Amino acid sequence: MRAHRSVLPNGVRVIVVPVLGVESATTLVMYGAGSRYEERRLNGISHFLEHMAFKGTTNRPSAREISGLIDGIGAEFNAFTGKEYTGYYIKSATSHVNLCLDVLSDMLKNLLLDPTEIEKEKGVIIEEINLYEDTPSRKIGDIYEQLLYGDTPLGWDTGGTPEIIRSLKREDFIEYMGSLYSAHNMTVVVAGNVHVESMNKEIEKYFGDVPRFEYKKFLPIKEKQTKPIVMVKHKNTEQAHFALGVRTVGLHDKKDKYPLELLASILGGGMSSRLFYEIREKRGISYYARTMSDHYLDTGYLATYVGADPKRIDEAIQVVTDEYVKVSQKGEITEEELQKAKEYTKGHFVLELEDTRSSAVMYASQEILQKELHNPHEIMEKIEKVTLHDVVRVAKEYLDTKLLSLAVIGNFESEKRFEKLLK
Questions:
Q1: Which of 119, 258, 284, 327 is the residue whose CA sits 20 to 30 A from 399?
Q2: Active-site option among 50, 121, 323, 337
Q3: Does the annotation mark 354 as catalytic?
């Protein structure tokens, strides 16, 4: 799977990924725009705009007209918003890619942003916020990032708050798009059974007139942590949820990214991983236990997420801390564990790329965030080159139990009882 990259005169970056042996294609437009680019008064507008893109254009004035067109070719379309990017995609039969380019370019160049539709969609957005609030296993990640990054755009929820959502007006959306939706802050990807040269011509036809302007930059994170920190979100739940981890490095750190990913896999990357076995299989404390290594452009973290019996949450936290100590202070990682982690990581990566949507997202996010492309073979080579020394080194460097961060959701009133566990 090889990506073919080019740049249009207006700065739009184009990536065509021929995938043989499939009959589908994913057409994706991604912007370097997300919630960390927002001001407090507009928090949530990146995600809200994603919804409004489907609500009508000057050429297709209603949501039903757009959805009817996509349903009529048996395609699926959706969008997603993160803290550093926003993507809009249609996955269709290869024969309909030109129509997908037409619809996506129309949605992003000719949005109506009808005030009546904005008011109606506010209710939808607020219910989505409520959904996440009522799903602690998903919400715990937001609480953990709020703990790490505080009252900054990187610490705010991507969805915003109901109060801010209710206040947003049409002018706010126009202002936001005018600050970030520039031609040279976007990437168009087509991944599927397509021809490179013909796709390049079609993409230029639909996106060659997108205006270019200087777009807004985000404020870098200033991190300073000198002791363990804890945040508790009180909620009456049958199951308590926590995230326990440490600060690491940003996306551009080429030395430690893959060793950290493999360390996370060793700790909690599968059903035979250390923490899953200790917490669920051996002790029966939890339904899920997983460890992830996540990165933003200028910062990152490694964290373990657990849903546990509230009466045994202290025990679960202690198990995670003990495993951190084993790998960081005692160096208890074996070559066998490393090899298993490599195969686990590469295997999941390959399985994801069997879907043209995942392939498109992978290349688009690389281009938007890292400004460089690596094909799957190159990425797996980087994973394979990680040594046991590399993994032990990052464990010792980053898994400092004196600098742990713990976020908790459950029927608990204060942080004090948890602070004692981290001393």
A1: 284
A2: 50
A3: no
